[in-house]
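User: quick one - fold this with flavin mononucleotide bound?
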Amino acid sequence: MDNENEQTGGQSGSKDEAIIPATPSDDDYAREADAQSDIEASDGGEAFAVDDDQGEVFTEKDPIDLFRSWLALAGKHEVNDPNAMALATVDRSGMPNVRMVLLKDVGARGFTFYSNAESVKGLELEGTPKAALCFHWKSIRRQVRVRGTVEALSAEESDEYFASRSRGSQLGAIASFQSRVLDERETLERRIEDYDAIYKDRDIPRPDNWHGFLIQPTEIEFWVNRPYRLHDRKQFTLVKGGGWKNVNLYP
Ligand SMILES: Cc1cc2nc3c(=O)[nH]c(=O)nc-3n(C[C@H](O)[C@H](O)[C@H](O)COP(=O)(O)O)c2cc1C
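Assistant: Sure. Structure tokens for the protein plus flavin mononucleotide:
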């Protein structure tokens, strides 16, 4: 190849540097630190430090409590969906797959999301009921990774969540053959209209193939950005018989 753009499939004639930010130089780090201290000074020290030492970030001993406190902080700073997480699964051949879903509950038993059990993710989880999650909150420059086993939530709990959703979202769940080929948008819209008419004066029941999934964590890793890629990492591993042990990891 005599042209870099051909290698990367670029169409615009611009080089990759135009879209991939350069790795920060010493000057960039110094500028970021100055900008951060200006913000803090103008905000009476209330501003949240993202580029420099964030202070004590591993504030709780229990990883679920720690996760909840980081999610609460992310909720104050993210532009939207602080509960969005990448969900990784594998297919029968071991080929990984990943997509975003929304966390709907988190507590001692694990992390919950809702989806269609006949979607690609649903079928992959049926074949291999193990998953990994990754949260990345750009605004606070933190990441949390979770690995664990997966099981379906009870019908009662799924019913309760389904009933709390807007009618439009309920119709969407019932009308969508999630992840299967759709010939044209109108087909989906027609299906929604049809179900809307069928359930005109009635509550929409939860479809059997739509329910909650619970990821029961065996490993949770917390990562926080530090200058020069010297990030802080703390990994919690579930101990047989109960409780968690934790270690720090090199960045
Ligand atoms: C921010 C975000 C949140 C999402 N949340 C969900 C969700 O909670 N449940 C879901 O089924 N799909 C959700 N999706 C759509 C999935 O990423 C995906 O397109 C869909 O579930 C089909 O995935 P699959 O073919 O691997 O099963 C979300 C997408 C984005 C970008």
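One thing worth noting: Residues 81, 84, 97, 99-102, 113-116, 119-121, 178-179 surround flavin mononucleotide (CB under 6 Å).
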